[in-house]
Amino acid sequence: MVASMCLVVLCIVLSLFAHGKAWSDYKQALTKSILYFEAQRSGKLPGNQRVTWRGDSAIRDGSDAGVDLVGGYYDSGDNVKFGFPLAFTITTLSWGVVEFRSKLAAAGELDNALESVRWGTDYLRKAHTAPNELYAQVGEGNSDHACWQRSEDMTTPRTSYKVDASHPGSDIAAETAAAFAAASIALTPSDPSYASDLLNRAQQLFDFARNHPGLYQNSIPVAGQFYPSSGSDDELLWAAAWLHRATNGNTYLDFLGNANNIGGVRSMFSWDDKFVGAQVLISKCDFSLCSAHSGEDGAHGRNLEPIQERGRQFICSVLQKGSNNVKLSPGGMLWWQPWNNFQYTAAETLALSAHSDHLSAAKASLLCPAGVVSPADILAFVGEQVDYLLGSNPKKISYIVGFGSAWPNKVHQRGDSILSMKKDPSPVDCKGGFDRWFHSPNPNPSVIEGAVVGGPDADDWYNDDRENYQQAEPSTVTTAAFVGVLARLI
């Protein structure tokens, strides 16, 4: 009898491993993902800094404009603080905390996740210098990319760029409003006063975005060379959805219900296209889960169904159950484009994870053209994509640096590709960094744990070469979304 029971338990364990990674794998990947944000910190590092190969950097940011813009996160493998993707990073990182707070707490990572959010909002608060004024970038991409230096000893210009009433940027203003609103929800339990300030700033920036339309790259041309915005209707919808969730009032539901552009059925969810995120958030209203109001005076009295339906159609296409499915690689990886493809996997799986829980809470399923999909089916698909990332792929490597037994060790990132100043404080000059470090055939001297590289090509091939920036460069927007996804899978 005992032997039979042991055999049953063994079969269950083997079955769990056959259908995905172990709980401990997801937990380890989550821990490393949050740690990555400490490696991307700009400014004066705190006493509890765990990534010890980093040092203080860019401690005079904003001095050219007479403001304090010290802090925040470097964008990807460079030393520029691009405000547009940075704000999206904070929004999606906060979304993971809001949706999966209990999971993060159970994994012992809630405090670290909240600290990562707050490091970002502390900087964004500094950047929001007046109700209608927002600093959108520090540093300039072309001069930065012409050098290969650690952030601790960079010599490139740290020019500050802003949008205001005379030089609008409704897209970045609305995205920062979304970041503040989402973060306010995440931080309310631990610091209600701070969260209240974030919410007030979110409302100010949303009004700024509505009242002063215009794309931010028209006001800051250098930003458009690297992160051009295709429009601001998606950011406004996204910000309104978060503000509604933060305030639980009718004002922002009215905006959502009267929106002229709801995006249609999208092909992706990204730092430049937030329609899917807004559609998924608004879909909670379909289950009376997003508002205390209902009936003719609440969510269901507004014409939100078209927005919700577009989101459902997109999710079906990601799940391979739609009428225009997202491409899969031969190894089963969702595929959008060659440059940092994993950023889309991260954002989309976060949206799917959230919607799975929305459906589950309402005891509902998703009706797709190819059949009915249960919340468990959605989460299983998410698990398959994450398992690919963690090593269940044709290359048999983890695409999260520091996880597993094999991962990319020539990451396109300045800080970890150059010997830490803690080991050699000698400054690295602008061009010398290329010869000695960038073109080196050796692995990076430091390990940037938790960084998610851009990922393989459409045929599952990955070239571990730091000069191959399309595949080898990590980004905060990618890891931010995966934090919530990994938390949900635990």
TrEMBL record:
Protein source organism: Vanilla planifolia (Vanilla)
Keywords: Carbohydrate metabolism, Cellulose degradation, Glycosidase, Hydrolase, Polysaccharide degradation, Signal
Family matches, as Pfam families: Glyco_hydro_9
EC number, UniProt record: 3.2.1.4
GO annotation, biological process: cellulose catabolic process
Alphabetized GO MF terms: cellulase activity
Membership in a protein family: Belongs to the glycosyl hydrolase 9 (cellulase E) family.
Swiss-Prot/TrEMBL catalytic activity: Endohydrolysis of (1->4)-beta-D-glucosidic linkages in cellulose, lichenin and cereal beta-D-glucans
Protein name per Swiss-Prot or TrEMBL: cellulase
InterPro entries: 6-hairpin_glycosidase_sf, 6hp_glycosidase-like_sf, Glyco_hydro_9
All copies of domain Glycoside hydrolase family, residue ranges: 26-486
Source taxonomy: Eukaryota, Viridiplantae, Streptophyta, Embryophyta, Tracheophyta
Transmembrane segments: none
EC main group: hydrolase
Secretion signal, residue range per the UniProt entry: 1-22
SUPFAM superfamilies xrefs: Six-hairpin glycosidases
PANTHER family: ENDO-1,4-BETA-GLUCANASE (PTHR22298)
Keyword Hydrolase: yes
Record keyword Signal present: yes
Sections of the chain in a coiled coil: none
